[in-house]
Design brief:
Helix content is 24%, strand content 25%. It is an alpha+beta fold. A hairpin with a 6-residue loop joins strand 1 and strand 2. The termini are far apart.
């Protein structure tokens, strides 16, 4: 059986000069955090993991957005 995947998005993370986002396509919030951790350096995870304790926005249907970057 295929897992029911959702898009988990945390806004306003890793704020230095401008806010960033963290996101994962996963079956649960816990799995989403684990997917992000897999792609993080140890120093990144230890510095920013607390920001992922906030509740993410969860999208279960087609969804798109964009965010400008800058310094």
């Amino acid at each position: 059986m295929k897992p029911d995947l959702k898009l988990f998005v945390w806004y306003n993370v890793r704020r230095d000069y401008t806010p960033g986002i963290a996101f994962a396509l996963a079956s649960s919030e816990e799995d989403a955090r684990n997917q992000i951790k897999k792609r993080s350096e140890d120093w990144e995870w230890s510095s920013y993991a607390g920001e992922l304790l906030q509740k993410p926005k969860v999208y279960g249907r087609p969804f798109g957005f964009w965010m400008s970057g800058g310094g």
